[in-house]
Amino acid sequence: MTDIPDDYDDLAARHVSIRRVLRLFAPYRRRIAAVVSLMILASAIGLAGPFLLRAIIDVALPQQDLSLLVWLAGGMIAAALASAGIGALQVVLSARIGQAILHDLRVRLYTHLQTLSLRFFTGTRTGEVQARIAGDIAGLQSLMTETANELGRSLSAVAMTAVAIVILDWRLALFVLLIVPVTVQISARVARLREALTFQQQARAADMSVAVQETLSASGIILARTMGRGPWLTQRFARISRDLAQLEVRSHTAAEWQWSLIGFALASLPALTLLAGGLLMQGGNPASIGTLVAMIALQEQLLWPFEQLLEVGRDARKTRALFARIFEYLDKPVEITERADPITIPRADMRGGVQLDHVSFSYAGQSVRAVDDVSLTIPAGSHVAIVGPTGSGKTTLGYLLARLCDVETGAIRFDGVDLRDLSLATLSQMLGVVSQEPYLLHASVAENLRFAKPEATDAEIIAAAKVAQIHDHISALPEGYETLVGEGGFRFSGGEKQRLALARTILRDPPILLLDEATSALDTRTERAMSRALDVMSKGRTTITIAHRLSTIRHADLIVVMQDGRVVESGAHEELAAKGEAYAGLLGDA
Fold first, then answer.
1. SMART domains in the record, alphabetically (predicted)?
2. CATH 3.40.50.300-classified regions of the chain
3. In the sheet that 354-361 helps form, which strands lie side by side, from edge to edge?
4. In CATH, what number does 353-589 get?
5. Which one has a higher pLDDT value, 299 or 74?
6. Among 403, 399, 419, 402, which Cα is nearest to 411's?
7. Cα–Cα distance for residue pair 152/96, rounded to 1 Å
8. Parallel, antiparallel or unpaired: strands 431-434 and 512-516
9. Which three-class secondary structure string do you get for 226-249?
10. Dihedral (C-alpha) 233, 234, 239, 240: value to the nearest 10 degrees?
């Protein structure tokens, strides 16, 4: 038998417990109580059948009482009809409860992931995140709807039928119930094995999601075709798919011989019961024919829900692997948090002053600091450029300014307020970011721009696009501002995407503008046009430019030079160029 991997045991032990799973059902306890009541009622009504059958065989038929026979037969039909109607209502209610719980779990996981820092996403595959939100939660579908429903219905049916069997004839009841411990033990062994396989299945399914996400995007197709790696990618996908198919087969067939023993034992029970009844007839207190027939009928009512109960236990154990993967993400610590009483600054009172006070930061697993003891004061309305060679910490400093990561030591203040004390809404209003690789949604141009300001009018959108030098290009498109930008904005060039991102930020009108290599993808003509746009936009607001192309920042009020995470020089262009040190070296490299 395949053992569950040690890392899985540790993962499940740390994140999954019965109490935690039951808490998912807590908001719906009243509706669940109503469903349970319906289950018990349906089971109780269903028990009337065998007792009515015994009365027919032992009383109505021997006495040839036609009137009693009609009443008893009618009672059996009425009981079956009522049980079926209640069962249907119970299924509908259970399905609604199950889907509501799944919806809550999906939204909770998505919301939690939104709060994690950039550190998590830079170290996690996008396809893996998608697999846990979509695949793993979808895998709980049967538990939350069918399995939970079958569990309650089968449990109530087994309990009440067992009581009825004891009432009917306690001697035969002992014989019938002896089989229960053996079948439960076999079922538990099968469930443990399939749980291990389910964990492996979901991990491999995540690999498939990653492969699709990486290779069946516009960027992935371009890479594959230009490198001639299409056949290799197909072989890799086929290998992942084959592994997943093999795990699916193993999951459905694992320990099938052991499970078949349970089916054999349950199928043999009626014959063994008749044999036991025959032996009892040899004694002084024989069981009646009607009692034996009713006992067989009760067994039929017992065996089906009991078998269902064993299957539910087996399948529910498999979902522990899914819960382990989901709860692992829910337990990821939230690094970027808003304090209980955050400070809010009205838009009219935002000036745009920025201060970095001995700021340091290092990425997880790295001993060298990406930003090391940086102090800098940026007056409101000034233009500061941050330059340096690749790996000097410029972009990391931008992440810290945008609070995509939190400083480890020191503080960053906007208008004298520590970023960690500001409300997240205030921070997003104060700082606008245009990055080197702008991200566009697969939506229209207008929808992408309104992402920054949902209530923006058409006139405001057009005005922002004009400042970003992109309005004429959009207007020339067949569908204008309703043109779909495509996956990742692939219908637009790199420069056009950056100007769209700039227009989106202009629409938000922040007092502090952070440009992270925002002109890196522009040709010389477009760069000049965008520089003029930035000059217009920068008036009255603080502009922080992280630049590699030094031609774009010569007129900045202050140029800060970084190396190995530290500030090594600062001053105006002419002053730094005349010193002949780090900045002059960058000019020479350019």
1. AAA
2. 353-589
3. 371-378, 354-361, 409-414, 417-418
4. 3.40.50.300
5. 74
6. 419
7. 15
8. parallel
9. HHCCHHHHHHHHHHHHHHHHHHHH
10. 70
Whether residue 284 is predicted with pLDDT greater than 60 in this model: the reply is: no
- Kindly state the tokens that stand for 274: 């008749």
Residue type, 417: V
Are the C-beta atoms of residues 457 and 512 closer than 8 Å to each other? no
- Overall CATH class of domain 6-330: mainly alpha
User: Is 138's pLDDT higher than 50?
Assistant: yes
CA R_g for the chain: 35
Q: Judge whether 290 and 58 are in contact, CB under 8 Å.
A: yes
Residue ranges of the chain that CATH labels 1.20.1560.10: 6-330
- The pLDDT assigned to 517 comes to 73
361 burial via Cβ count (<10 Å: 0-12, 13-18, 19+) = buried
Q: Which amino acid is at 150?
A: E
Q: Give tens-digit pLDDT for 68-105.
A: 888 988 888 888 888 888 878 877 888 788 888 888 88
Number of H helices, E strands in the chain: 24, 10
The beta-strand segments (E) located in 363-444 are 371-378, 383-387, 409-414, 417-418, 431-434
pTM for this prediction: 0.68
The answer to whether the CB of 529 falls within 8 A of the CB of 496 is no
Distance in angstroms (rounded) separating the CA atoms of residues 193 and 492 = 51
Residues 378-389, mean pLDDT to the nearest whole number: 91
The span from the CA of 496 to the CA of 155, in Å, is 63
